[in-house]
Amino acid sequence: MNILLAFKAEPDQGMLAEKDWLAATAGVSGPDTAMLRCSPGADEQAAASLLLAQRRDGCNMALTALSIGDERVIHWLRYFAALGFDTSVLLEASGDLRFAAEFIARQIAGWQRDHGADLIITGCQSSEGQNGQTPFLVAEMLAWPCFTQVERFTLEQPFIVIDQRTVTGLRRCRVRLPAVIAVRQCGEMALPVPGMRQRLAASKAEIVRQPAVPDKTPIVQCQKLARPEQRRNATIIDGATTQEKARILWQDYLCQRMQP
């Protein structure tokens, strides 16, 4: 069974200082994330963990990790190789791809047509663009079924059994492959850590690098940046004296919470 995990290495914007965010609101370019450490999203890490766990249990599969971007992705492609992925692919592309869901979907669908895959796995959405469109667009281009909000899945060739979170609860489906699924991190899976021997072997592993297929990318131009005000919810206690304020605090808040 050939499985393609498509992931996006996202910059850790939590490493930006307060002054970087304040400076970004003065223009329309946003904060500079070029020097930030990048990592796959939590959804994609959970998907990789589920795949590797089933391989350890004896499920026969060929795993491909694919990403679109620049040199910053190389580290994670080697990391996945150290974990046991058979093929690592970098489709080289420049420019702002945060909101280019259709462009990214065309690259993934194009790779599938050229190399074949029974199952394509993505995350539900990235922490940058957050549009959640990519898996649906890939499925539409390939005329495959698509399932999102998948918390767990089990491979039973030629089927896949998925646990999908819906508004009414958890739904289990048995789907015939091929299919596209978008995995949702539910806090139960963690990406394994490869040992030193695996890391050294992966440092020499071949990474398939090729330019992304030329395509018309959408021109997205930021018009305005605004920093939302961060305030905690609070109730202001008004009183003429300190004693009165203390009495109001006791009657309206503390008294009810200290009942046996």
From TrEMBL:
Listed SUPFAM superfamilies: Adenine nucleotide alpha hydrolases-like (SSF52402)
UniProt keywords, alphabetically: Electron transport, Transport
Electron transfer flavoprotein alpha/beta-subunit N-terminal domain segment(s): 28-211
Pfam families hit by this protein: ETF
Similarity annotation: Belongs to the ETF beta-subunit/FixA family.
Protein name: Electron transfer flavoprotein subunit beta/FixA family protein
